[in-house]
Amino acid sequence: MSRVLIRVFWLMLIGGLSLQGCTPPKPVRLGTPIEGYSHTSAAIHRFSVNGAGGPNLAPYGYGGGQMCCASLPVKWHPGLTVVVEWEKDPDPYASANWPPLGTDGYRAAYKLHAAKYTRHRAVVPVAPYERLGAIDVHFLPCNQVAVSAVAMLPGQPGYPFNFPQKMQEPATCPES
Description:
It is a single chain. Helices cover 17% and strands 34% of the residues. By secondary structure, it is of the alpha+beta class. The strands form 2 sheets. The protein has a 4-stranded mixed β-sheet with strand order 4-1-7-8, with no helix packed on it. The protein is elongated and about 90 Å long.
């Protein structure tokens, strides 16, 4: 009887050790929500971070809540960047003077207006973070963008940026 118990013990021990190799490793990257902040008078109709979409942003606003998700490393490292692409409407209140919604005149006015949208792309450094949080994309004057992924909200102590909510576009922007 003791030989059987010893054999069962060894089989359980070997089986348990072999199952340890099946434990999934801790994730190196995680999907994290995307949110945006427009600090300018332009509307951001759409934007993306590494191809994952963010919410629409009103002028000078935080927009649309969070969208899901872009992948970032769990641990920040020097040189970490993301690609931000966005479409900007420099005159978001123009529709106030258009013909009624749903008419041919409205559609024609929208088509002319949408032709003035500008499209942008930037490779942006991600501010250092100790704990991965939501990706915050800040749209600034002169088509500049700042990105953080800290686990805190703008305005809280330790947040990497302190941009005013309303920033004015300068008369001329520096060359990129």
